[in-house]
Amino acid sequence: MITPDERVDPTGPEPPYQQIAEVIRRRIASREFPPNTRIPTESDLVETFEVARTTVRRAVKLLREEGLVRTVPQRGTYVAG
Amino acid sequence: MITPDERVDPTGPEPPYQQIAEVIRRRIASREFPPNTRIPTESDLVETFEVARTTVRRAVKLLREEGLVRTVPQRGTYVAG
DNA sequence: GTGTATTTGTTCGTATGTATC
DNA sequence: CGATACATACGAACAAATACA
């Protein structure tokens, strides 16, 4: 569940896509998103954070570049094992 | 039949998916698509309006949210009774 | 009963145009 | 101007269930 303090603040110091990446990072660190499981779809994240899909994709791209997740086309994005 | 004035105008003020929803809405209102009958398949609508399936689905989703139609997986989309 | 076609569901990839800061 | 964000659209691939020959 996304708690209030994890919602995106468009007026905050960090851009939304970084805030979203940070939320997902914590989910992974806390094992709420365990290794090798799929994280929510882009559509889900769009609804959860109420942002555009491009913003969600940017956040996920960040995590991918950090090696925290891997994305499989037409399948989803998975937490690194 | 889709008359010329009901074709989608990509340059119009309203996006294609809204225009398509409006066309179907009129078909329902005029009883050309009577209650409890199936509306054309997504593939049919794709050919008729010459748009992508995602666009058709978006239009139908709108109608579904309005309660005008209900979609049955693997069956089709039906006009609300 | 079997295999194929149909039809909607899901999900990511990509591109374009507009707006805002 | 560049980075960010939003809305829209097209495409592709595959899943799953139903319909049909």
Protein model, in words:
The structure is a homodimer of 81-residue chains. The first copy, chain A, has 81 residues and is mainly α. Chain A is built from three helices and two strands; from the N terminus they run H-H-H-E-E. Chain A has helices at residues 16-29, 42-49, 53-65; strands spanning 69-72, 76-79. Chain A has a two-stranded antiparallel sheet. In chain A, helix 1 (16-29) packs across helix 3. The relative contact order of chain A is 0.20. Mean pLDDT of chain A is 90; it is low at 1-5. The chains hardly touch. The structure holds a DNA duplex (21 and 21 nucleotides).
How would the blueprint of this fold be written?
The structure is a homodimer of 81-residue chains.
Chain A: H1 16-29, H2 42-49, H3 53-65, E1 69-72, E2 76-79
Antiparallel strand pairs in A: 1-2
Helix pairs in contact in A: 1-3, 2-3
Chain A binds a DNA duplex (21 and 21 nucleotides) through helix 3.
Name the poorly predicted regions of chain A.
1-5
Multimeric state of these chains? homodimer
* DSSP summary: helix tally of chain A: 3
**Major sheet summary line of chain A:** 2 strands, antiparallel
What do the pLDDT scores of chain A average to?
A: 90
Note the main attributes of this structure.
two-stranded antiparallel ribbon, 3 helices, homodimer, 81 residues, mainly alpha, DNA-binding
Outline:
In chain A, 43% of the residues lie in helices and 10% in strands. With 81 residues, chain A is mostly helical.
